[in-house]
Amino acid sequence: MRSKHRRLVTFSLAALTGLAGLSLHAAPPSQRSLKEDIAQIVDGDSDELIAASARLRALGQPAVDALVAHRKTVVRSANASDDGATDTIDALIARVSGQFNGHTSGLFWHTDIEQAKAEALKRGVPIVSLRLLGRLDEDLSCANSRFFRAVLYANRSIRQRLRDRFVLHWKPVVDKAPQVTITFADGRRIERTITGNSMHWLLDAKGRPVDALPGLHGPRAFSAWLDVTGPIAREVLALRGAQRQRRLSAFHRAEIAKTEARWSAELRDLGVELGGTEPTRSELVAATTPERREQLAQRRRHPGDLDSNTQELIAAQSPSAPAQVPAREAARLAVTKMVAEAPLLAAASNLTDTMALDEVQNAYLFHPTIRGWLAAAAPVTTKAVTDKIYAELFRTPLTDPYLGLAPADVFSAVGLGRTRMAQRTP
C-alpha cells in the first residue's frame, strides 16, 4: 500500500492546471467541518483531489485558510528531507487560491470579475485587480508578477491589508509570458521569461477604474498607494457619470501635483538646479538622468522591506544552497543565519536595488502619466488604459503578437524565421 506522502506526490501541478474549465460553483464540501474535509481530501488519491479542488475554490478564502493550516500539519509531520511531502498540498493551494506559492500569502484571488464585484459589493470594499502576462497561478508568469508574489503578497503587513480591506482579482493580458529555454548537453534546462510587466488596478466595488499602479514597487510604496486610493474608491462608489468623473479628475490632478512637488524636492536635495519654484514636468523628466535615477533609488532602498516571510521564500528558491543539503532544510537554515549566507544576502540586496530603481521610474515617470489619462474629462475603461500602458509605457504593445520583441527595423540575421512564425500564428 502506498504511503500518504507517496499518494500526495502523485498529484502534480500539471494535473491541477487542467481544472481551469471546471465549474467554480460545484457543490462545496460539507460545512460540518472544513478542517476534517481538507484532511480527507488531501489524504485521497489523485482523482479525488482533482474533483475536490474546484469545490474548494468555490468556498473562497475559508478553503484557502483551511488548506494553509493543513499544510503546516503536513510540514511538521513530514521528514525534513522529503520535499515531496508538501508538493501536492502546495499545488492544491495554488489552484484553490489562484496564486502560485499561494501558501506564502494565504490570499484568495478571483479570476472572474463578476464574482469579484459581487463579493466587493457585499463587503463594501474596493477591488485590487492585477494585469499580467501569463497566469498568477503558474510559476512562469511575467517577472514583475513573480516579484509581487515574493515581495508584496508574501509580506505579512501587505497580505493582511489586502485580505481585510480589498477583494483580489487577476486577469492575463496575454495567456503566457514569452519564454526562453536553454538546454544543456546532459538534458538539464533553464527556463525563464524574457519580457513582461505587470500593473495593479484599483477598482471600486462596481468594477469601475479608480487608479492604476504600474510595475514593481516596494511594500512601503505599495501600502501608501492602497492608503491613498482605497478611500477615494469608497467615496466615488455612490457617484455616477459626470459627477464621478469630476471627483476622480480632481483627485488625480491633486496627486500629480503632490508627486511633482516631491520629485522636485528630491532632485534639489541631490543638488540639481531647477528653474523656478515649480518646475514643469518636462523639466523634471529632463533632470532625472539615469545617474540621478540611481541616486533617487538609493533613497528608497529599504532592506527591511523584505520581511522574514519574503526572505524564507527567497531562500527556498535560491540556487546557492549546497546540493547535498535538502532544499527545505537549507531554506530554514538560511533564514536563521541570513547574515552569514553571502550569496543569499547578495540576492536580497540585488532585489532591493532593483525594486528601488523600478520604483523611481514607475512613481515619477509612469504613474503621473497614467493619472493624467485618468483625469481626462471623459470616463475611460480599464481595457483602454491598460492597452495604452502596455503600448506606450511598457513598450510591449498587446496588438503586436511579438510584444515588441521582433521590431521590423532590426536585422537579426535569422533569415525568414519571423515570417515563418507569423504564418503559423493564428
Strand ordering within the main sheet? 2-1-5-6
| CATH 4th-level superfamily of the largest domain | Glutaredoxin
> What value does the average pLDDT take?
78
Order of helices and strands: HHHHHHHHEHHEEEEEHHHHHHHHH
CATH domain class name of the largest domain: Alpha Beta
Q: How many domain units? A: 2
The low-pLDDT segments are 1-32, 321-348, 416-426
Helix content: 55-70%
CATH architecture of the largest domain: 3-Layer(aba) Sandwich
What is the approximate shape? globular
Q: What characterizes the major β-sheet? A: 4 strands, mixed
The count of DSSP E runs of length 2 or more, i.e. the number of strands, is 6
CATH topology value of the largest domain: Glutaredoxin
- Radius of gyration, in Å, reads 23 Å
Structural class: alpha+beta
Textual characterization of the structure:
- The chain is of the alpha+beta class and 426 residues long.
- The chain has two domains: 1-97, no CATH class; 98-393, 3-Layer(aba) Sandwich (Glutaredoxin).
- Helices cover 55% and strands 8% of the residues.
- It has 19 helices and six strands.
- It has a four-stranded mixed sheet, with helices on both faces. Strands 3-4 form a two-stranded antiparallel ribbon.
- Residues 1-32, 321-348 and 416-426 have low confidence and may be disordered.
